[in-house]
Structure formats: C-alpha cells, structure tokens
Write a structure and sequence with these properties.
Beta-lactamase; about 550 residues; nine-stranded antiparallel sheet; Lipocalin; single chain; alpha+beta
C-alpha cells in the first residue's frame, strides 16, 4: 500500500477523502477449503512457522518499501501534502508494496471513525488456485485478536454477578492445581497474563499438528489433556501472581473453560449468542464446518523458500475447540468494524449494550506492564487488549493475532473515535503489521516517515549496510543486516568473524555502536559526510564504504 501523503491541515481533510472513497462490494465466489498434506521437511518448516506464530508482537525494522513509497510524496519543504482525490490511491499503493514485500496473497483492510466505516477494501487473492479476490467480507483466522472476545465474555459474566475477577481460578475449575493456596492465581491474573506461568507451548503443539508439519507427541486433544498439561507445569511457575508478565495462551484456554462452567453453555455458542449476534457479526465463527461452508473465505498459506523461490502452500485453519478461546475466531474486517465501534463506544453498538461502560473501560485500562516495548514507549496489557500510552500523546489500544498461516490486527484510539483492522492469509507478515500505526498516524495529521521512529531507523540502517575497505583495500569487511541488528562480517584468510554492532541509542541518533568481544566492549562509529560518503571507525581501523 502506498502510504497516503500527510495532509497539512490534518484530520478532517483525510476523513473527507475516506468518506468519498468507495467501499468495494464483496464478491462471493463458491469454493471450499483445500487441505493437502504438506511436504515433509519438518524441522526447518516447523521452526519457521513457530517463529511466525511466536513473533506476532515483534516489530522488526524491515520496512524499506514503506519508506520508498512515503518518500515519493514528500514535498521539497519536507512536509507531506496531497489532495483528497489522491488519498485512497496512495494508501492502496502502500498496502500493495507491503504485500509484495511479505509475499501476502490476500489482505483486507477497514477503517472506522465516529461509529462509521469510512474505508474498506480487499487486496489480492483470498485463494490463489482460482485467483478469487479478497474482499472486506472475506473470513480470515484472526488468531489472538480472539482474546478480547474471551475477556469480554468473562466481563459479561462478572456484570451478571456469576463470577468475580478476584475469584481464584480453582473456584470455577477445581481441577486446576497450579499456584499457592495463600496467594492463588485469579481470573484477573489469567486475563492480564500475570499468573506467573510462562508459555507452555500448547498452541505450538496444536498448530503444527493441524498443519501436518510436525508432531510433538504431547497429549493435547481435550480439556482433560489441557488440564494435565497445565498442572504438569507447577514447577515452571516463575513468579508470584501479579508480579510478572508472561503471555500465556493456556491462560485464555482456561478462561474459556470458566465461561463454559459458569454460563453452562459451550464457549463458542456463548460468544456467538452474547457477543457476535448482538454485533451483527453473523458470519464470524469458531466452527470449521461453518467456515468451510461459507462462500467467501480465505485459504491460509504457509510460506517457505524452495531453491531460492518463495512458495505458498495452501493449508487449513489450524485452531480447534481446545485453543478457540485463545485464538480460534474466524471473521472479516467488515464484521470486526462492528466490534471496533462497540469498544470505542464503551460497549454500545447501535441499540445494543454489550457491557457496562465502566467495565468496558476496565478492559482497556493498563493493568500489567508487558515485557516488550515499542519506540513510542512502554506497552501494557489490560483484559484481552494491549495498550501503548505514548502514541503521539494518545492511548493506542489493540491486539495482533497470528495462527502461523494467517494474521490480523485490531487497533483503535478511544479518544479520537478512530480504529483500523486488517487481516491477511499468511503468518509473520512484518511489513503488513505496520499498516495500523501508519494509517492511524496519518489520520491524526502526522507524517509517518518522520514521526514513526522505525522509518528513520530503517533509513539509517539501509545507509550503513554495504561493503567497506581500509587503506588500499588491504582489509575488507561487510556490514550486513540480520533481523533488527547490524553485523560486521570479516572474511579474511587469517580471521573470519561475524560481530554484532549494538547501537548505543534505540533510535540511532548518533550512529554510535559497540561490539561485545570476550569481556571487552569496542566502540564503533559511522560518520557520514556532507556528500553522503560513509566511514566506519572501529578500534584501530578506518573503513570507507565502497559498495
């Protein structure tokens, strides 16, 4: 997608553009989900897909295409400007660029403002076999975006007086054996990932099993298996309840069990009847049979490299009943806009009140500091939502999700009545994951290129990568990028090394780094002259960038 140019007079001008842009009509093509068996290169593929699943919160700095597109619209005065008629085209150009970079077959995107959908569009193919288009109504697996639905179900039951967030988990699940009697793990702890229990790998077991790419041989097919798995981890508990954040999928699976016990209704049916239907999310479902009967669903794809070529292998939605409360919902961006509106409106959608406004605000309140941060500052976790308190002076509430073969994000700015949701049919789409903050920043009248730190960092890192040579080319090194870090690689006959260049500042303000080496810390500094030539000073050497 090309990111739209910054509008000088900000918010209202952009909204006029969105209001004038058409929503693409959903195309309902017939077809069913294919589930061919995947090729057996198990270890490599399993590592890849689990990395995609586990790294859904990470925002590595790999967004060069965004910078390239954004810079096309920057004026000579350094500001971004454009007419309203250009907005949708440029937004869509940036989406397309991100999809190409991440090898995403299909993606859907929607934006809401003041209770209305102001933009919705599908991009690419929901199914490659017959090139069926993705639309705003295409159903995707949304992964951990499901967690806020589970949290909302718990809050509804609390409002009805059927449970208390301070209740020990054991009160509703007597078979739960983890924790101390004098300081028990509570429902609040499960909601906020503050139980003290680290990740137990249950989601990994289920995903690779359904995809047919590996088997861990862990019993994980029933609620009894889940309880056995969790109770067996009593010695894994690493902190007292409330003292440390550990993102725990099993915690939300236990919450789903609590919903069933307290409501005496199967979890999937409770969420359908008490949340999805009141929100007119009538096609959203947890049930595979309903998903596969729908005429407008995505085919999830596992992306892998074969002989240097990226190959998209069609597969299945890899979540079932056991993990549904943690990540099993399948929905469309259009139906999720109803959910966004309800959250922004403190629990109200049209004439329906899902939850008391005080309790809804409690869900969006920072309860526990997460163990990751963004360049905007600290990240907190509420009840099924995470929040950043420094997003251009506003609280950004949201959640990402990945099943390893599909991804989604739902984000909103409560005080601006603005939200964005996307979903796509691959996992680990890092460039695509930047779409929500870029869209929101743009709609706030900000310049993403200059004000979202990752872009300036990306630009600097790209400038430093290359081949370097010392005096007369006697000593040569390379500066390469691996993930979010730069490495200095030496390939000489007398020495072959790969050394991490650790930045002294998160935003690379001064281009100063250091190299940790066997008990020492060696300074490394890049210097860029007025003409753009780059030198690297490290220990006794001065290297010139030559390529």
């Amino acid at each position: 997608m090309r990111v739209p140019k910054m509008v000088k007079n900000g918010f209202n001008s952009v909204l006029q553009t969105f209001a004038g842009s058409r929503r693409l009509v959903a195309v309902r093509n017939s077809g069913t989900m294919r589930s061919p068996k995947l090729s057996p290169n198990h270890k490599k593929r399993t590592k890849t897909i689990l990395d995609q699943f586990r790294n859904k919160h990470a925002r590595e700095m790999i967004f060069g295409s965004f910078i390239r597109i954004l810079s096309l619209y920057e004026g000579s005065d350094g500001e971004i400007s454009m007419s309203s008629s250009e907005f949708a085209e440029k937004l869509e150009g940036l989406v397309a660029e991100a999809m190409m970079r991440d090898h995403v077959p299909g993606l859907s995107l929607a934006v809401v403002k003041d209770g209305k959908v102001i933009y919705a569009r599908g991009f690419g193919a929901r199914r490659l076999k017959d090139n069926a288009p993705a639309t705003p109504d295409t159903l995707y697996g949304v992964g951990s975006c499901t967690k806020s639905f589970t949290a909302l179900a718990i809050m509804q039951l609390a409002q009805q007086g059927k449970l208390n967030l301070k209740d020990p988990v054991k009160k509703h699940l007597p078979e739960f054996k983890v924790g101390k009697e004098e300081n028990p793990i509570t429902i609040h702890n499960l909601l906020t990932h503050s139980s003290g229990i680290p990740d137990l790998g249950g989601a990994d077991v289920e995903i690779v099993r359904h995809l047919g790419i590996d088997e861990k041989w862990v019993p994980f097919s029933s609620f009894e298996d889940l309880m056995l798995h969790v109770n067996g981890a009593r010695d894994e508990v690493a902190a007292e309840p409330g003292n440390r954040f550990f993102y725990l999928n099993e915690g939300y699976e236990l919450l789903g069990m609590i919903v069933e016990r307290v409501s005496q209704t199967r979890y999937e049916y409770y969420v359908r009847d008490m949340i999805l239907r009141p929100l007119k999310m009538n096609r959203s479902t947890f049930l595979r049979e309903e998903f596969e009967k729908d005429s407008n669903v995505t085919t999830p794809y596992f992306m892998e490299k074969k002989d240097g070529t990226v190959v998209a292998t069609p597969t299945v939605h890899p979540i079932d009943r056991l993990c549904n409360p943690a990540g099993g919902l399948m929905s469309s961006v259009m139906e999720l806009t109803n959910y966004l509106i309800a959250n922004i409106n403190h629990g109200v959608f049209e004439d329906t009140k899902l939850l008391d406004s005080v309790l809804m605000q409690e869900m969006h309140k920072p309860h526990v500091q997460a163990n990751w941060a963004t360049l905007f500052g600290k990240v907190w976790y509420g009840y099924g939502w995470h929040m950043e308190d420094g997003f251009f002076g506003h609280m950004l509430v949201g959640h990402s999700g990945s099943t390893g073969v599909s991804s989604a994000n739902v984000s909103f700015l409560p005080d601006l009545n603005l939200g964005v949701v996307y979903a796509c049919n691959v996992g680990g789409a890092e460039s695509v994951s930047l779409i929500p903050p870029v869209v929101l920043a743009f709609l706030m009248g900000r310049d993403p290129l200059k004000e979202i730190p990752v872009f300036e960092i990306e630009k600097k890192m790209a400038m430093l990568v290359g081949e370097y040579a010392g005096y007369k080319g006697i000593v040569k090194i390379s500066v390469v990028r691996k993930g979010g870090l730069l490495f200095m690689e030496v390939k000489e006959k007398l020495a072959e090394q790969s050394l991490a260049l650790i930045p002294e500042s998160d935003r690379l303000e001064n281009l100063k780094f250091y190299v940790p080496m066997t008990g020492t810390r060696t300074a490394a500094e890049f210097v860029v002259d007025a003409s753009g030539k780059v030198d690297l000073y490290i220990e006794r050497y001065r290297f010139h960038k030559v390529k």
